[in-house]
């Protein structure tokens, strides 16, 4: 009995520790939402799941310490629901970020982003005019484009140096015109029409050198946000999958230990079925 309680207590303590990377992933997404991705609702399911695991683990730990079978049972039921919720979140995260990626550009190290490469619920959410107004304001206020400027001896970096930079999706989509527009480089956020015609991409007409406008209303900027979200969510999902596998293993161990506690409390000998115990055989000499 005591060894089973100790095992359940240890499993609950380890489960509590597992909640830390999940909660940390949600907090990291929240910090990204405040500075880069600017979608402020996606991190909350992960934060809620992390906090729930913490609370449930503490309840199970208390149940094991005080030999309270109700708290142990509550831990098993609640943890099963949390595991199901975590599986659902991982599937959702992969589903909404499944399609779309940056396109390579000739003689450029950075990628260009196009909204038509993305699809699904998340694209529709980001593309919504009312919602995009909040996202674009967030990107503008975060100073993402202002931060990409570099100076060497008081002069901006050359075009060749800029073309070899690895820009983030938001920096590439929102802070410069798409490469197929044919604009000439002035500095990181100042571009002028070249000698040829402006490309057919509708974003080409939306580019503005005014620092408060740039390409914040471009489809490329929306695609850059989607590309940034995909990178963020995939990093967090890898951690969540590892945690989920370990969580399931711990759950199976805790369930087996709980069954053992019930068997001992019911005074059932190991290996003897309940039916045999309830209806013992009678032998006549």
Walk me through the structure:
It is a multi-pass membrane protein. It comes from Brassica cretica. With 285 residues, this protein is mainly α. The protein contains 10 helices and 6 strands. The chain has helices spanning 2-35, 44-65, 69-96, 121-127, 129-142, 159-163, 169-174, 203-206, 219-265, 274-278; strands spanning 103-104, 111-112, 151-152, 155-156, 183-187, 190-193. Strands 1-2 form a two-stranded antiparallel ribbon. A two-stranded antiparallel ribbon has the order 3-4. A two-stranded antiparallel sheet has the order 5-6. A hairpin with a 2-residue loop joins strand 3 (151-152) and strand 4 (155-156).
